[in-house]
What we know:
3 helical TM bundles of succinate and fumarate reductases, 4 helices
Amino acid sequence: MSTSFGSRRLVVGAHYGLRDWLAQRVTSLLMALFTIALVVQVLVGGPLDYYRWSAIFAPQWMKVLAFVTIVSLLYHVWVGMRDVWMDYVKAVSVRLVLDIATISWLVGCAGWAIQVLWRL
């Protein structure tokens, strides 16, 4: 919603637009790069068993790429869910509860994902 006053335009809102749009594209690109790296390693190697899967994630560069991908995924999901809550939940108190629940869920998922990857 915007209000015009003469030649100046007053835009009401959180002003997240371009930053969030760019964040969604950058995190998508990082996740795509990880997916390509993983698919190439799976297709190039031998049979896919626990030892092969462990070997894929053994190099430090793959651990770093996996960590960056997890963080990217979490931020990507956070931006999307926050936008959904802002667009469709009008009650501020309900939106705050949903934001806190979303953040809690994402932090829990991050801890679990990192624990799984580093335990391989």
